[in-house]
Design brief:
Layout lengths: L1 H23 L11 E6 L3 H14 L6 E4 L6 E2 L1 H18 L3 E3 L9 E4 L3 E5 L5 E2 L22 E2 H5 L15 E2 L19 E5 L4 H17 L4 E5 L10 H16 L3 E5 L11 E9 L14 E11 L16 H6 L5 E4 L11 H10 L4 H7 L3 E2 L3 E4 L11 H10 L5 H16 L2 H9 L8 H13 L3 H12 L5 H18 L2 H14 L6 H14 L3 H14 L8
Parallel strand pairs: 1-2, 1-6, 3-7, 6-10, 11-12, 11-13, 13-14
Antiparallel strand pairs: 4-5, 7-8, 9-16, 15-17
Helix pairs in contact: 1-6, 1-8, 2-5, 6-8, 8-9, 11-12, 12-13, 13-14, 14-15, 15-16, 16-17, 17-18
Length: 556
């Protein structure tokens, strides 16, 4: 399929040039607040507070912040959208002389000039437009039956704000002419698209925090690990495209040097999987946040992008446990995307295209979100600071500043550099020697864990086990520590160090009493206790296994 060709082509480009491009590409940084209009719900004080906070932090001009009298619910009717949001906003933009209206033959936009490119919708602005049973459009008969719908996300509808309302069709998706754009400057209101994202979430505090974390990542860089959960389309070709997107995204990140984990099983990540220091997460397909996301098993880095592909992932943003967008933001993600209603798989964001533009081509979040979306006036939205661009500076510029400040984040640069060299050469010995020469490796749990993994892959088992033990003593984060304990214990068993493995499992049980997969730990611990003839531990394991084991299935 065409998308597969695109993935292969970009991977070829990455293989040849990602190292040199990342070292030399430099995009302009600058104060971009003047490129944003900010919209809040004047009926909600919290909405105004979020708008004012964002405008202050991004230096958005005061005459580009607009309060509108909107419903306080997440849903609004199409009449409310037109009469309370769409048309009043157009009027305010013209009165403030932020746009110039003129006739352009065959142009998609009614604006010949616009002083902004982005719109930031703030907490309290409705997220979705309800179905209008009175709406009739004869042209809708040409659409496939499943596309003959007029409900949409508010955000996706507002991307079409520059288009003359008289020419617009409300039923079905509007084709995004800038899907796949490689020139970010094309994404402009004068070309017919407004880049709409929102500062939102389960609470106003969470919404406000999105700009703080974005600015922190722009200052320090976005570092960390990448987790990709593929496999849902493994046994069903109708869903293969989603797997292609996720696997393509994973390969992009691997070749760019991120420590990456890819799961190709049809189920979502298991609950007991510790996800530490997450820079990127993408997966599918569950109704609600589950697995590591249902307990404290996920640690997001400042600036992290997280996305779960599901038809109703953004059905509500006001919940910390329902659907996906709200829970991801509540757990610390800085940017995400989602669907307020059924978009169908082909109408969801092309995830591999998003990663290519956001990470490799260094688009802003607003640019990458809409360059990867093939439909406007449809079901999707993007949550996060539209200006957010953590990859604008070169990695060598980042490391110089981080080392000058003696920032712990410098460890991630050395990890990324080691991984990129390994991608190019595949030489484990060279990778080990290179990492051992980095002075920071001696005091970094992140780099010491990587060194341990490299030793293990190179069959230097004693060195690997020693390195895992050292990493555990170097102040790892809680989830990194949990992963180190699980991995080290399993490999100690393989090495025959049963007493050490037993002690590590016992320590894990003591330090992580809320671990959701305690049953598997006791199952692994029991044979070790038997080998060591530890009767007390044997009895405890047998008792806990009996207590934690799920009841047998009822016979039909």
């Amino acid at each position: 399929m065409a998308f597969s060709f695109t993935v292969r082509r970009w991977l070829w480009v990455l293989t040849l040039s990602c190292g040199s491009l990342l070292a030399t590409l430099e995009l302009p940084g600058a104060d971009l607040g003047a490129e944003v209009i900010v919209i809040f719900n004047s009926r909600m004080p919290e909405s105004k507070q979020v708008a004012e906070y964002y405008a202050q932090r991004r230096q958005v001009p005061a005459d580009q912040v607009f309060g509108l009298d909107l419903p306080v619910t997440e849903s609004m009717s199409r009449a409310e959208f037109l009469d309370q949001l769409h048309r009043p906003l157009l009027k305010k933009l013209e009165e403030a002389q932020l746009v110039t209206v003129g006739a352009q033959k065959a142009a998609p936009s009614r604006w010949t000039a616009a002083r902004f490119r982005y719109a930031a919708l703030c907490y309290g602005v409705p997220t979705k437009i309800a179905h209008d049973p009175t709406l009739v459009e004869p042209s809708a008969e040409t659409l496939r039956p499943e596309l003959r719908r007029d409900e949409a996300s508010v955000d996706s509808q507002l991307t079409c704000l520059p288009v003359d309302e008289k020419e617009f069709k409300w039923i079905g998706p509007w084709v995004n002419p800038f899907y796949g754009a490689t020139n970010a400057s094309q994404l402009h209101p004068t070309n017919g698209i407004l880049l709409v994202t929102r500062l939102d979430g389960p609470s106003a505090d969470i919404a406000r925090g999105l700009v703080d974390k974005a600015l922190e990542a722009e200052t320090n860089g976005l570092w960390g690990r990448a987790y990709f959960d593929s496999g849902y389309g493994k046994n069903n070709t109708n869903y293969l495209l989603g797997d292609v997107w996720i696997r393509g995204s994973a390969e992009f990140c691997r070749r760019l040097g991120f420590e990456m984990e890819l799961d190709n099983n049809p189920d979502t990540f298991p609950g007991g999987m510790p996800m530490s220091q997450v820079a990127f997460y993408a997966g599918w397909y569950a109704d609600h946040a589950n697995g590591p996301f249902s307990w404290r098993g996920v640690e997001f880095m400042p600036g992290a992008f997280a996305y779960h592909l599901h038809s109703f992932s953004a059905a509500t943003l006001r919940s910390t446990n329902q659907h996906w967008v709200g829970p991801l933001l509540a757990r610390g993600a800085t940017a995400t995307m989602g669907s307020v209603n059924e978009p169908y798989l082909g109408g969801t964001p092309d995830l591999a295209m998003f990663f290519m533009r956001f990470v490799f081509m260094r688009f802003s979040f607003g640019e990458a979100a809409w360059a990867s979306q093939n439909a406007m006036s449809w079901q999707n939205l993007a949550v996060g600071d539209p200006l957010y661009c953590p990859f604008r500076l070169r990695p060598d510029q980042r490391i110089e500043e981080l080392e000058r400040r003696q920032s712990k984040l410098a460890e991630w640069y050395h990890l990324l550099n080691a991984n990129m060299n390994l991608v190019r050469s595949g030489d484990l010995e060279s990778a080990i020697e290179s990492l051992e020469r980095v002075p920071l490796t001696r005091k970094s749990a992140v780099l010491k864990e990587k060194l341990a993994d490299l030793f293990w892959a190179n069959r230097k088992l004693t060195y690997a086990l020693d390195a895992y033990e050292s990493a555990l003593k170097l102040d790892p984060t809680p989830m990194q520590k949990l992963r180190l304990m699980l991995r080290s214990a399993e490999r100690l068993v393989l090495y025959g160090s049963h007493a050490q493995a037993c002690e590590l499992y016992q320590r894990l049980l003591k330090e992580y009493p809320d671990y959701p997969d305690l049953l598997s730990v006791y199952v692994k611990l029991l044979p070790l206790a038997k080998k060591l003839n530890n009767k007390e531990e044997i009895e405890r394991c047998e008792r806990e296994i009996k207590r934690l084991a799920p009841p047998p299935s009822a016979k039909p």
